[in-house]
Amino acid sequence: MLNAGVLGAGHLGKIHLRLLKQSDKYNLVGFYDADEENGKKVEAEFGYKFFNSIDALIDAVDMVDIVTPTLSHYDCAIKAISKGKHIFIEKPITNTVEEAEHIRELLAENNLRGQVGHVERFNPAFLAITKEIKSPMFIEAHRLAEFNPRGTDVPVVLDLMIHDIDIILSVVKSKVKHISASGVSVISNSPDIANARIEFENGCVANLTASRISLKKMRKARFFQKDAYISVDFLEKKCEVVKMKDAPENPGDFDMVLQNAEGVKKQIYFDNPHIENNNSILDELEAFAHAINTNTTPIVSLNDGTEALRVATQIINCFEK
């Protein structure tokens, strides 16, 4: 078992603490929180050991789970790496691409593992259809949330859209060619609603919309590729695959057959892949333990987290033009 420690005991930090405690891959040593009053309150309520020194906690563990505000990710990561510790770091990886690249370099130099908390990669609905996504040429993603003051210290792109940016970068095997975007600040000082269009060198186009001022929640993505349409509902954990194949000469009474202007007939059929229920956060944490124990590249690597941040930063820069 790996000795684990958590930095940050806010809303998400407490979830990480609970899951690390129940995991058979880790031994939860304790946590550190910059707010001593909150730290002692969490210790009293849940029984996790509170360290009043960040250095003391890092010294006592093998893996540091960084669940602090984004602005402090870099400093926490550097401190952990300097002490020879593996790091799990929540998304977005850091505040700037330069910080992310420095962390990535230091990890490599010290032969340490690092994983970024892009949890939607472990969403059961996405896992169920990942193998079905092959060379998508158009992608549409909507991630809408009701207003919550927590997280409004950063643009909605870093708060919400970055989830879909990472998903798209993981399935499109091509470099980004061009990005255009627009964003509007309605309640916060930074954009609360944004739309981005990402064009890839292979011709694929992704259209992303994110909002944190919606009346209802939505987390959906649709992938269009040759002879197939794939939809994923990350919120409801549902997915659907609609495929097309050459129609048989003598279709059955209930077969769905379409004919285009050239006279080509295609049969439409539906596939609903089996979805294995899981706890995505627990799975990502345990996948990281596996990467550490086997000295392999984590499923969501520091490179993945850096590239997602790079695209997110380019989108944000479009707002200022």
TrEMBL record:
Signal sequence region: none
Domain of life: Bacteria
Protein name according to UniProt: Oxidoreductase
Pfam family, one: GFO_IDH_MocA
Sequence ranges assigned to domain Gfo/Idh/MocA-like oxidoreductase N-terminal in this UniProt record: 3-118
InterPro entries referenced in this protein's UniProt entry, alphabetically: Gfo/Idh/MocA-like_OxRdtase_N, Gfo/Idh/MocA_Oxidoreductases, GFO_IDH_MocA-like_dom, NAD(P)-bd_dom_sf
UniProt domain GFO/IDH/MocA-like oxidoreductase: residue ranges: 156-216
GO function terms (MF aspect): nucleotide binding
